[in-house]
Amino acid sequence: MWLLVLLPITGGTLAGDFLAVSTVFLQAGSATWPTVQGTITRSEVETVRSNKSISYRPLVAYTYSVDGQTYEGNKHRISSWSGGELEAAEAMVARYPIGASIPVYYRPSQPSTATLLPGLGNAELFLLMILLPFNLAALALCVIVARIWQPERPLVAPFFREDGSECVTLDVLGTDAWVAMALGGAAFLGPVVGGLSGAYNAPLFVGVGAWAVVIACGVLAGRLANSRLKSGHHDLRIDHPSRSLSLPPIAGRRRRFDVRWSDVRSLRVGEPVRGNQRGSETHYPLMLEYITADGEPHEETIARCTRQGQAEAMEQWLRTRLKLGEETPEARRPARAPAKTTGSSRA
């Protein structure tokens, strides 16, 4: 089933990559093409109306001759797309009035392919930026499918930190996932902001700067995620000398929650909880009941596992480490002060 989803998505992404990258290379290579003089035969602004917006694009046509053969061209760039701003379209039309003689750059191996503006521009840089989120999504899907054939990882993978605490990392995305989300989000917003601000027709350094921002977002997300992972931000910690349990700030907690082993009454896997949206993932909450300082029982969610087996394995591991069952709940309950008696005692 996964292959039926993977193949069309990957195939479509690769096809889009091929068309876009070939266009970008062709536009970049046009800077070295030979030139001939041509004549502008059409120059006007076309209004494109849709249900929700109106955009504008320049329509420029020209004729030129190569080795006695006359050709007609209608692209001022190989990748002739823009943000749809009226000012940019009018500026392009004013630059190429009808009857003007202009240099035309043509492809030596295919003279019918020509352009008026050679070399790499912001339009090509933003085009590549648009493709980045789709490539990251296809790559993520490939990783998910590849993991199906990998050996199953342990349901619980405890390890010891330098301070001697025994830990299990809970509810955490890998550094690569955070980097991919940051890159994809920035690459999605970049062309939108660029189109609204007219950056497609700005100098080339604007597009280069936009790519620098996208890359910086990915680097920053990777460093932050790696730092939190190394610091144990998402670790459930068991401190054997002090006989305490420390829960990470997940599952609705804003800060760490510490509890003594002697205050823990029970562990259990709660009823499965399905997300609010249809088809969303089911979670199995691992619950801990403990005695508060006031002597009242209270329940805390340790984590929300995506698999029932994982929640049950975590429960069994914690039950063994906390030595639950060796003492009765009454024995673990903090002692209360004896109640005061009223009245005088009889001799």
Automatic annotation (TrEMBL):
<feature type="compositionally biased region" description="Basic and acidic residues">
    <location>
        <begin position="323"/>
        <end position="333"/>
    </location>
</feature>
<feature type="transmembrane region" description="Helical">
    <location>
        <begin position="170"/>
        <end position="190"/>
    </location>
</feature>
<feature type="transmembrane region" description="Helical">
    <location>
        <begin position="125"/>
        <end position="149"/>
    </location>
</feature>
<feature type="region of interest" description="Disordered">
    <location>
        <begin position="323"/>
        <end position="347"/>
    </location>
</feature>
<dbReference type="Pfam" id="PF12158">
    <property type="entry name" value="DUF3592"/>
</dbReference>
<keyword id="KW-1133">Transmembrane helix</keyword>
<feature type="domain" description="DUF3592">
    <location>
        <begin position="36"/>
        <end position="120"/>
    </location>
</feature>
<feature type="transmembrane region" description="Helical">
    <location>
        <begin position="202"/>
        <end position="221"/>
    </location>
</feature>
<keyword id="KW-0812">Transmembrane</keyword>
<protein>
    <recommendedName>
        <fullName>DUF3592 domain-containing protein</fullName>
    </recommendedName>
</protein>
<feature type="compositionally biased region" description="Low complexity">
    <location>
        <begin position="336"/>
        <end position="347"/>
    </location>
</feature>
<keyword id="KW-0472">Membrane</keyword>
<dbReference type="InterPro" id="IPR021994">
    <property type="entry name" value="DUF3592"/>
</dbReference>
